[in-house]
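In this section we walk through a basic example: taking a raw amino acid sequence and producing a predicted 3D structure, encoded as discrete structure tokens. The instruction is simple. Fold the sequence below.
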Amino acid sequence: MGSWIVQLLMLLCLLSFVNSQVETGGDAHLKGIVAINAKSVIGTIDDDFVCATLDWWPPQKCDYGRCSWGLASLLNLDLNNQLLLNAVKEFSPLKLRLGGSLQDKVIYGTEDYNKPCTPFVKNESEMFGFTEGCLPMARWDELNIFFKKAG
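The resulting token sequence is shown next.
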């Protein structure tokens, strides 16, 4: 794959990230300059590169009257679903990104976290409309077992 294509893909990923991190309201605009130096390579990917994101949104996340996340987030995805496991295996070598808008609001329920591990709670006054939420280590272990099974 040509280096300019790789740089374009990286730029699109960067723009997608910036777009997901900036909340604009009303007539707000995000302006900037993007320079692409096609003379040097800053990163490469395999020709068979496939990437997917598992996000943190709880079922209460709604946009335009549609609550489409349901049971499709890191928090509640059915990791015992054989169809899901087979699909992930078929995309091998799939790169799974764990993240999304709520990533900065995730607290990990590790042994040294001495508070209750509570889920995200809908709160419109909070950034992205949710409070901080905790990922219990038992769920982290379940995710890792799923990733190992999927290869």
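Looking at the output, two observations stand out. The chain is about 30% helix and 10% strand. Residues 51-150 form one domain. In the next section we compare this with other chains.
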